[in-house]
Write the structure tokens for this entry.
Amino acid sequence: MFFDGLKFLFICIEVLLIFNLLIVVHELGHFLAARWRGLVVEKFAIWFGKPIWSKTIGGVEYRLGSIPAGGFVAIPQLAPMEALEGESENGRDKLPPVKPLDKIIVAAAGPLFSFGLAFAMACIVWVVGKPQSEFDTTVVGYVKDGGPAAVAGLRPGDQIIAVDGKPVKHFLSGTDSVKWRIVRSEGETIPFTVLREGQEIAIDSKWSKPETSSWRRPALREVQIGPRIMPGVGFVVKGSLAEKSGFKAGDLVTDINGVPVFNLSEMGPIIDANRGKEVVFGVERGGEDLKLNMKLPDATPDAAPVNFGIEWGRSVLVHPSPLEQVKDAATSIFRMVGALLSPASDVKAAHFSGPVGIMRLYYQIFESENGWRIALAFSVLINVNLALMNLLPFPVLDGGHITLAIIEAIRRKPISIRVLEVVQTACAMLLIGFMLYLTFYDVGDIVASKAPVAEQTK
């Protein structure tokens, strides 16, 4: 128990350090650019809310806020930001005016530093590698009986080439995956192009969306298929049924009670037929054949599958180039925003994660084997996301500052302070409201992860 507590504390520290690093580097860009261009800097804050720590050095107040939702550098000559940063200590009307070009440089420096950190982390990932599924293909391994895909004619063994007219490279991860293309589809049916016995076949499948509780994120489209996954163990949860039975990361299940299994989906019927009984798993580990005994739990009224505490799918290290990683991250973000803005899309704002959700995901990543490698690769995506989202021409964001500076340059005179205050305050309130909205669903995900399966859906 003591060591579990230490591990939990250590992972929490890792999460806080890497999450704060992303914020610090972004805000450091604004800070250094403001100093370079001669603007007054009042505060350098990580997180918002009432300070839990602060110290003034060289006329700048450095602080750590109590609300884990980003950070800011208070530069009163850039734009009125009292709603987020507090009242200006120097008096805005007493400060000298700033050229639009200087405002653009200071505003753009944050996203530029985030891109720089993303590229630096991508270089590290390029050298050390990142884990990827050993069998990362688009081959179907599971089709639920009676589900939309089964009714349409999809079968295990089909290799999916395209979904909704778009080519796919992966099954689950990324925006060029089968899962994403299903979610992103907008028609009454979803066209699939599959390769079956050397022949290309076109199949149109209907879709379904499971009902979820009101406090959960809205469900997304699914056709109830799964990838072909070799029954290799990628990660074993501490204290789980699998760990108690002796499973370890890297194991490959070869048979159950002497019945050979070649795909993860083949395990389900065997497990269901032996609920409440002891079964023997044949396991290959480092070239050695082992037998592991496991007492399976009894069947539940809702027919929930057995939770072994195993993350299935062994992984190998891949070494994508830095440019490839940054490009993939940017492409994913553009596709997510495109889905959000499409009226016919099922992807809504509720499907994005806020700071709480991102930190929770970092925690889950650090818990896994090779977690630090996965965290680095994930941080490339987060940094590119931070840079691009901040460049949106929305007041309060960096892109909004740039847009206002361009308008000021075209008008050849500053925008009315009163107008700026109203616009900035209104948009700041919207931003805070949006963060609270995302946090509601982030907390809902945490609650749902600890609730019994039967309580997670209606």
In short: The chain has 13 helices and 18 strands. The chain has three domains: 2-129+379-456, 133-226+318-378, 233-312. The mean pLDDT is 87.
